[in-house]
Amino acid sequence: MFTESEELSGWKKLILVVTRFAIGWHLFYQGFGKVVEGDWSSVGYLKAGWGPFPWIAEHPTLLYLTDLATVWGLMILGILLMVGLFTRVASILAILQLFMIYVAIPPLDYTGFVTTTERGSELYVNQTLIEVLALMILASFRTGHIMGLDILVRHYRRNR
């Protein structure tokens, strides 16, 4: 039986690591942009949604916690993915966070055509879902062991 590193060519490893970094950067910058904005809140997004979360916008404490978790979750998970630290856990947590964002306003319409102001027309699949699927791929590989701080963690655990 081959090990994971023996099965992947150099190009495949590079593509996985670059994809991990790009998604990490995207998550980090989304969170950072909300911090820089200063008065950002998810209230508008939640109220516009017809998914299971609009009620959060009506409860100030839950809204505050949601905003805090959104901003810091995006930034922390983004940093972890960029540096390749705890990549599998970070990928799974990012999947969960992004999936909740996807479910809040899913691109579903029973007429068959959805137009959004940000990205044009979407039906069922949007960039958030694609990012979730890419993170699922990354979670199935040890990209932090290819290039990232997970190499140091593995080395520390072996020598303990």
Strand content: under 5%
Mean pLDDT across residues: 88
The arrangement of helices and strands along the chain is HHHHHEEHHH
Terminal CA distance: 27 Å
Total domain units: 1
Low-confidence stretches: none
User: What characteristic shape results from the CA principal axes?
Assistant: globular
Estimate the helix proportion, in percent: 55-70%
Strand order of the largest sheet: 1-2
Count all strands and give the number: 2
Radius of gyration: 18 Å
Number of helices: 8
Structural class by secondary-structure content: mainly alpha
Biggest sheet: strands, sense, closure? 2 strands, antiparallel
Provide a quick synopsis of the model.
This protein is mostly helical and 160 residues long. It has one domain.
Q: Mind sketching the topology for me?
A:
Layout: H1 4-7, H2 10-37, H3 43-48, H4 60-83, H5 87-104, E1 115-116, E2 120-121, H6 127-139, H7 143-146, H8 150-159
Antiparallel strand pairs: 1-2
Helix pairs in contact: 2-4, 2-6, 4-5, 5-6
Question: Can you walk through the features of this model?
Answer:
With 160 residues, the protein is mainly α. The chain has one domain (9-159). Helix content is 67%, strand content 2%. It has 8 helices and 2 strands. The chain has helices spanning 4-7, 10-37, 43-48, 60-83, 87-104, 127-139, 143-146, 150-159; strands spanning 115-116, 120-121. The protein has a two-stranded antiparallel ribbon with strand order 1-2. Helix 2 (10-37) packs antiparallel against helix 4, helix 4 (60-83) packs across helix 5 and helix 5 runs antiparallel to helix 6. It is globular and about 50 Å long. 21% of the residues are buried. The mean pLDDT is 88.
